[in-house]
Design goal:
725 residues; alpha+beta; Four Helix Bundle (Hemerythrin (Met), subunit A); 32 helices
């Protein structure tokens, strides 16, 4: 901002502004700018909180110091006069930021995330509404923050600012979001160990800032009228537990133990209020106590409240009370999950999963009916513990998690049957989703093998409800209509098997719908390509043609040539020898209008007829647009010989890349293998492609040498410089 007296209005002021701004713009710097008199600045500040807070922190770069000092004094006086309005606006902004906590986001926003630099800055602005000392000194004088809090906030600012500066240096941009791909470089620049160490350190900082600022806004932001209203509502909720001043607290003369703490936490969650900070501080040194039925009931009741319990449980974690109750929680606290489809750190994900399962218990419809057939405490504890193995030494978090869950539930005093069921649920919490999305549900062996693993309807109901809750808690990339339909179908088929002991021939719902939808095209027995714009913003391309070897590789290659980024695909055959392939993806370059779609159909026809050299052209495109390696770039090929009696199931786990499906399918063509079904899905930056394959004679692949050759060829094609040939 260029501040000037009204006497220099016009050409002189504008010329000065141009002399200041243009060199900065020419240098590529992005900055806001303003040309104002003190009166104009104050007039705008009366209406705009962002302008006012900017004026509170003004500092002179060059020019008339007295002019700026006068404006600064007037701005801070304005903030004091409008104190309640300013603090309400600052508190509202802070509560909005609470939806993006630094401590629980895998890619935290260091400035605008809850617990970030803006939260610290907002507290200092609030200080200017109290007295002329301003900042944290005013908050300390008012008893809103303790001297120790000032040290915490000062240290937090330094650590957050260091990380933000290094992020800007590493990226060469002004972004404040510490993305997964930049975390290693920023950690190295700060000598912070590895990326996980950096994220957990920032999480600790963010939790402390959120903890302090949340308490300040709760006490400072409500106006006098609301404060009087809350005071009138002061009441005892149960023996020794009170609702006071917008919070829940435990009386000073009440006995302090885990039971009263959990009961108070339950009241706080149900009322939508926090536990008072003074109460929580008294439990900072909570001693681990033996669990009894009353304590376990209070804990499960807190979990059953659902989403409103999350901030309350997190406040218990802030003072170490949660770890005193569940020592294993330390391993998952603020632990990052290095994939693009998880939104939260492990600890927050577990609480989100509990909340989702609690919501399902209250839902109407199919999911709610299934969930209500379970023992709620087993479902909620299973949700809380399903990823507890992450952070433990075992490579498979399901195995280590099952052992930990058995120890924890035994400590909680759960009955032997409940302990066994939860341990099984944690060990197999991915079984339903993986089977539904990576196996052919038309094959009897798929349902039978899944049913044998589950064994009874109690476990099946629990597994279904947990799968839905876990997937919803993970994020949009992990749950959608297609996956929900497959998971529900597998559940229904397995439930019928367990209830009646019978399994008949079937078509998957997805395949049945696809074949029925395109029956007319299939009956014409010639090439046809159709397009649909889906509600989930993906574009669907369906290809019908007489089946032939290499068709999957050819069609996928043509789509990749035209910038169609395949996110999911399914390939089917019918009894007449026709092939139906359904591709869902994104129009990367926004070229697939009617003309672009017609061009794709012509190219598919030419490629299937041998007139279009798809491989050579795709090879050139891949070399031009090949992704820069980031994160997990490993390629893994797995075989399942028991999932089908007629085909070998081949799973390919790899980083997403241009033309990936076409490159994998080309391997099957080159090795003279027939793909009878394909299930393709992209999860963030990685794909899991599943293929049912047979040899040229229609037989299942079982020979170790043949399997090793297939694995080695796929890995070589996906990692070598020579991409397709």
């Amino acid at each position: 901002m260029l501040v000037h007296e009204g006497s220099v209005r016009g050409g002189v002021a504008e010329a000065a502004a141009r002399a200041l701004w243009y060199p900065l713009w020419d240098a590529g710097l992005v900055l806001g700018n303003a040309l104002r008199t003190p009166k104009e600045a104050l007039t705008l500040a009366r209406e705009d909180i962002d302008t006012l807070t900017g004026l509170m922190d003004m500092r002179v770069v060059i020019g008339d110091v007295a002019l700026v000092d006068d404006l600064l004094r007037d701005a801070r006086e304005l903030a004091r006069k409008r104190g309640p309005r300013v603090t309400e606006a600052l508190a509202l902004a802070a509560w909005t930021r609470a939806e993006r906590p630094i401590a629980e986001m895998l890619e935290p926003n260091l400035k605008e995330g809850a617990g970030g630099l803006r939260d610290i800055q907002a507290l200092e602005w609030a200080g200017w509404t109290l007295d002329d000392r301003g900042r944290l000194a005013a908050l300390t004088s008012a008893g809103l923050v303790a001297p120790d809090d000032v040290e915490v906030l000062t240290s937090a600012r330094a650590r957050l600012l260091d990380a933000r500066v290094e992020l800007h240096r590493v990226t060469g941009t002004r972004s404040d979001v510490l993305t997964l791909q930049e975390q290693d470089a920023v950690a190295a620049a700060l000598d912070a160990g590895d990326a996980d160490d950096l994220i957990r350190d920032l999480a600790s900082v963010g939790r402390s800032v959120t903890w302090i600022s949340g308490d300040v806004w709760r006490r400072l932001a409500p106006g006098r009228r609301r404060a009087r209203r809350l005071a009138r509502r002061e009441r005892e909720l149960e023996g020794g537990i009170w609702a006071r001043a917008g919070a829940v607290e435990i009386a000073e003369d009440a006995p302090l133990d885990a039971s009263i703490l959990l009961r108070a936490a339950g009241h706080a969650a149900r009322l939508g209020r926090p536990l008072s900070r003074a109460t929580l501080e008294r439990f900072r040194e909570l001693e681990p106590a033996p669990w009894d039925p009353e304590l376990r009931a209070a804990f499960v009741a807190l979990l059953r409240i659902g989403r409103a319990a999350i901030p309350v449980v997190e406040s218990l974690d802030q003072v170490g009370a949660l770890a005193a109750l569940l020592p294993e929680w330390v391993h998952v606290r603020a632990r990052p999950q290095r994939n693009a489809y998880h939104r939260f750190t492990v600890d927050r994900h577990l609480l989100e999963a509990v909340a989702e399962c609690g919501a399902i218990l209250d839902e109407r419809g199919f999911d709610g009916d299934v969930a209500r057939r379970t023992r709620p405490e087993l479902l909620l504890l299973g949700a809380l513990l399903h990823d507890i193995g992450k952070g433990l030494p075992d490579d498979d978090h399901s195995v280590s998690g099952a052992a930990a869950a058995r120890t924890i539930t035994a400590r909680l005093g759960l009955d032997a049957h409940g302990i066994d069921v939860i341990a099984w649920l944690v060990r197999h919490h991915l079984l339903l989703a993986d089977t539904a999305t990576r196996r052919d549900l038309t094959v009897d062996e798929t349902i039978i093998r899944f049913g044998r693993a589950v064994r009874d309807t109690e476990r099946l109901d629990l597994l279904y409800a947990l799968t839905v809750g876990d997937s919803r808690a993970t994020g949009p990339a992990a749950w959608g209509r297609s996956k929900a339909a497959l998971v529900r179908q597998l559940y229904v088929e397995a439930d019928r098997l367990l209830e009646e002991g019978v399994v008949g021939a079937r078509l998957s719902d997805e395949r049945r719908e696809a074949l029925e939808k395109h029956r007319d095209l299939l009956s014409q027995r010639q090439l046809a390509v159709t397009w649909d714009d889906r509600d989930d913003e993906l574009l669907e391309c369906t290809v019908v043609a007489p089946d032939r070897p290499g068709m999957l590789a050819t069609v996928a290659g043509v789509l990749a040539l035209h910038g169609f980024d395949i996110r999911a695909a399914s390939a089917y055959g019918d009894e007449t020898g026709m092939a139906l392939e359904v591709y869902r993806g994104v129009d990367t370059f926004e070229r697939l209008d009617d003309g672009g779609r017609a061009t794709i159909e012509r190219d598919i026809d030419g490629a299937l007829a041998g007139r279009l050299p798809v491989r050579e052209r795709l090879d050139q495109r891949i070399r031009r647009y090949r992704r820069t390696p980031t994160g997990d770039d490993t390629v893994e090929v797995r075989f399942d010989l028991d999932a089908s009696t007629t085909a070998t199931v081949c799973e390919v786990h790899a980083p997403d890349d241009v033309g990936l499906l076409a490159r994998i399918a080309a391997v099957f063509t080159d090795l003279e293998l027939d793909v009878t079904a394909a299930l393709v899905s992209t999860l963030g930056e990685r794909v899991v492609d599943v293929f049912y394959v047979r040899d040229v004679y229609g037989a299942k692949l079982t020979e170790p040498l043949a399997l090793d050759r297939l694995r080695a060829t796929i890995v070589a094609r996906l990692t070598a410089d020579t991409l397709l040939t």
